[in-house]
Design brief:
The protein is globular. A hairpin with a 5-residue loop joins strand 2 and strand 3. Helix 11 packs across helix 12. Helix content is 28%, strand content 16%. The protein has 24 helices and 27 strands. The chain has a 6-stranded mixed β-sheet with strand order 5-4-17-16-15-6, with helices on one face. It has 4 domains: 54 residues, ADC-like domains (N-terminal domain of TfIIb, Single Sheet); 250 residues, Rossmann fold; 189 residues, Dimethylsulfoxide Reductase, domain 2 (3-Layer(aba) Sandwich); 124 residues, Barwin-like endoglucanases. It is of the alpha/beta class. It binds ligand MGD (2 copies), iron/sulfur cluster (SF4) and molybdenum atom. Belongs to the prokaryotic molybdopterin-containing oxidoreductase family.
């Protein structure tokens, strides 16, 4: 770097557990010239990843949306003209006001998720605006909602294990998590534990990059994880491998749980999971006796009919064997819960009108088609931080809905995504280098500060400013809509929380990142003596919260938990088989014999980066990995274009013939854009909109298809 450059401390904004600390070099003309990882950051250790190494190419991409646009061609044609911010905001306010007057404000719905996960500009940035408007409440159970419900039902909203403590683990069970692609910076800790003698086992239907790097790969049948977890409990109890002292002191409901799992023998589990009974026995023995043992669950563990109960069972295992006693023992889900984020200051649930209609974003296609729970038809959508055309199931219906001439759609974006193509108004959004923010993490215990490094390009604005402008245009003058970014940063955390001792806005600004004030990774064992944030204060095999029925954690629901109590849930963990499988739906399986998995792409971040040439080259063409036998019986050769289909839809991709997937399973990584696809459709056309058992989680892995040469 030349002497004239300055270095700015920043944070990767992506929806990724690693939340890397970044250093941005800016030249004397105010142009960012380099982005790198901060070598001093203990967890991320100076590395970024293949997605973000070239972040400047995204920031300065000629395809950036830099000015407000109004549609001039038919919806989806991508024809727009430039307009001023004043005109754009005035038109939105006029349309929202007219629609609310004619149909009621519930005819308007926000659609958003985690394009950026900063506390200011991320999940909740629009919540007060839509609450004030009285718009339909958007339920955003995109990711980990079912898992969070199940985890909370069992051990409460605890941070669980510190990922850095994994160096102390003696047995690491990676369950439905492709760490090498999705949680890269965790691997060095696992590698270190392994050097110290730990065994690493991966449970995944496919030989992922992570499974290939492990000591053992257990190739389970998709969606049958609950059977394996419950059967492990069966073996542990039957063989007397429990930590009875831990059970007696710090858990509730053990006798009932023990009785429940009697039925889940390894022989039974073998028929469900395809994993040999002897392998299950060995796994259970090793997991129980090599202490401390840890289970790292991926978000993917929830993506089938019984995903919630799977996480219930998995969350019970550490209590059974006393894994919580030592650092590096327990379960690692989302350490997010350790951050005292002042969610209320961003969600403002008190501004919601009780009884407001709730629509789950996964059902947007159906909702636009008029298949609504109650209330008026949807007449306006406001999309930000999300690209639902690619990330939501029922793609064909969603496109039909977005084409509706009577629907007014606003999209705030950095790029002309597949969703932005259907907008009436597109608004330009800044990237992380052009905005200030402050970040929690769902993969480690550090807060990270993001200083604005460069001036906003064109007329792009951060999401905070977008909603300030919209609120002003609507005449909303509550103090919450007047807050500056500085004021929001000051409200981001409960600064008096014990985990924030010695952490202030000033110290964060200066240092860039700080670890929460919790014991270090060599001491971090929050449940060595129970202290679970559950009603009983113990790990609950019999869950008091489950007895109250299914629920969605308010974080995933615009702050609202105002709903009819969900279906009653059996308070003991139990097995729920996949919906779409040969065992549960033989008729469907006869027509569609292959189980489709749609995991994360190595080179994309959900659909973000799906427009950049470099990332597309790394990800290669939209592909489908198929076992050589399944390929041969269909006459499919490597590189052949193939059609993947079921009753819901069809998409076309290129075949990759490999035995990394078992017979009967095909894999197509998600995130590729529809406009780059072979037949104007991506895998979201075939995924079901049906929810799993808990937390309204999606069931992407519970999808049967067939494949033929295109
Ligand atoms: N089939 C299948 N579908 C899935 C999944 C799967 O595994 N399989 N996974 C699900 C999961 S876990 C998730 S989290 C969701 C993710 O779904 P989404 O959150 O919709 O993720 P992205 O597709 O990355 O869309 C984020 C968009 O926000 C934009 N953006 C980024 N920063 C900003 C900003 O500051 N302001 C504004 N206005 N926009 C910004 C980006 O350009 C991008 O287009 O997808 C879900 N969908
Ligand atoms: N490179 C990259 N990194 C990402 C993202 C990205 O898009 N790309 N997205 C981020 C987001 S939003 C999220 S939620 C996380 C998700 O991170 P992960 O939870 O790791 O998500 P996936 O890659 O979807 O799935 C992980 C593994 O689960 C397996 N799997 C699928 N179904 C089942 C099943 O029924 N049982 C079992 N045992 N395994 C199953 C898949 O084969 C896959 O190898 O990654 C984050 N990091
Ligand atoms: S996407 Fe994840 S791994 Fe990559 S730089 Fe961002 S936080 Fe780090
Ligand atoms: Mo996610």
């Amino acid at each position: 770097m030349t002497a004239a450059t300055t270095t700015v401390r920043a944070a990767c904004p992506q929806d990724c557990p690693d939340t890397c600390a970044m250093l941005v070099n800016v030249d004397e003309n105010g142009r960012a010239v380099n982005v790198a990882g901060d070598p001093d950051h203990p967890y991320t250790n100076g590395g970024l990843c293949v997605k973000v190494n070239n972040y400047l190419d995204r920031v300065y991409d000629p395809g950036r949306v830099l000015f407000p646009l109004r549609r001039t061609g038919p919806k989806g044609s991508g024809r727009f003209e430039r307009i001023t911010w004043e005109a754009a905001v005035a038109e939105i306010a006029e349309k929202f006001t007219a629609i609310a007057a004619e149909h009621g404000p519930e005819a308007i719905m926000p659609v958003s998720y985690l394009g950026t996960q900063g506390i200011l500009n991320g999940l909740n940035v629009g919540d007060p605006f839509f609450a004030k408007l009285g718009a339909t409440v958007a339920e955003r159970t995109y990711c980990d909602s079912g898992s969070c419900t199940a985890y909370a039902m069992t051990i409460g909203d605890t941070a669980g294990v510190d990922p850095e403590s994994l160096v102390h683990s003696k047995f690491i069970l990676v369950w439905a998590c492709n760490i090498m692609s999705t949680n890269l910076h965790l691997w060095p800790y696992i590698a270190k534990a392994r050097k110290n003698g730990a065994k690493v086992v991966v449970v995944d239907p496919i030989r992922s990059r992570t499974a290939a790097a492990a000591d053992q790969h257990i190739a389970i049948r998709p969606g049958t994880d609950g059977a394996l977890a419950l059967s492990m409990a069966h073996v542990i109890i039957a063989e007397g491998l429990t930590d009875q002292d831990y059970i007696d002191r710090y858990t509730v409901g053990f006798p009932e749980f023990a009785e429940r799992v009697e039925r889940y023998t390894p022989e039974w589990a073998e028929t469900e999971t395809g994993v040999p009974a002897e392998t299950i026995r060995t796994l259970a023995r090793e997991y129980a006796t090599a202490q401390p043992s840890v289970i790292r669950i991926g978000v993917a563990v929830e993506r089938h009919a019984g995903g919630g109960q799977t996480v219930r069972a998995l969350s019970c295992l550490p209590g059974l064997v006393g894994a919580w006693r030592k650092p590096g023992g327990g379960i690692l889900q989302l350490p997010l819960w350790a951050f005292p984020v002042n969610w209320g200051a961003f969600m403002h649930p008190e501004m919601l009108t009780p009884g407001t209609r709730v629509i789950n974003q996964y059902t947007l296609g159906a909702a636009l088609a008029g298949d609504l729970p109650e209330g008026p038809p949807l007449k306006a959508l406001m999309v930000y931080n999300s690209n639902p055309v690619v990330t939501t199931p029922d793609q064909d219906r969603l496109i039909e809905g977005l084409k509706r001439e009577d629907l007014f759609t606003v999209v705030s974006e950095q790029f002309m995504t597949d969703t932005a193509d259907y907008a009436d108004i597109v608004l330009p959004a800044t990237t992380q280098l052009e905005q200030s923010d402050i970040m929690f993490s769902w993969g480690h215990l550090y807060i990270t500060y993001n200083h604005q490094a460069i001036e906003a390009l064109g007329e792009a604005v951060p999401n905070t400013e977008l909603f300030r402008r919209l609120a002003a245009a609507m005449g909303f003058d509550d103090p919450v809509f007047q807050r500056t970014d500085e004021e929001m940063i000051a409200e981001a955390f409960d600064w008096s929380h014990p985990n924030m001792e010695g952490i202030t806005v000033e110290s964060l600004k200066e240092k860039g990142w700080q670890r929460l004030t919790v014991p270090g990774p060599d001491e971090y064992a929050p449940h060595a003596e129970g202290n679970f944030p559950t009603p009983s204060g113990k790990a609950e095999f019999v869950s008091a919260a489950a007895a109250g029925g299914n629920f969605v954690v308010p974080l995933f629901r615009q702050g609202s938990n105002d709903h009819q109590p969900g279906q009653p849930v059996d308070p003991l963990p139990h097995y729920i088989a996949p919906r779409e499988s040969a065992a549960t739906n033989p008729e469907l399986a006869a027509r569609y014999p292959l189980n489709l998995l749609t995991p994360k792409s190595h080179a994309f971040l959900n659909s973000s980066f799906g427009n950049h040439d470099f990332h597309r080259q790394v990800a290669s063409e939209h592909s489908l990995v198929i076992h050589p036998d399944d390929a041969a019986s269909r006459g499919i050769e490597e590189g052949a274009p193939v059609r993947v289909f079921n009753d819901r839809g069809t998409f076309t991709v290129v075949a990759t013939v490999q035995d990394t997937v078992p017979r009967g399973v095909v894999v197509s990584p998600m995130g590729g854009w529809r406009k780059n696809s072979k037949a104007s459709a991506t895998l979201a056309t075939v995924n079901p909109t049906v929810f799993g058992d808990l937390g309204n989680a999606p069931t992407f892995s519970d999808t049967l298809v067939d494949v033929e040469i295109a």
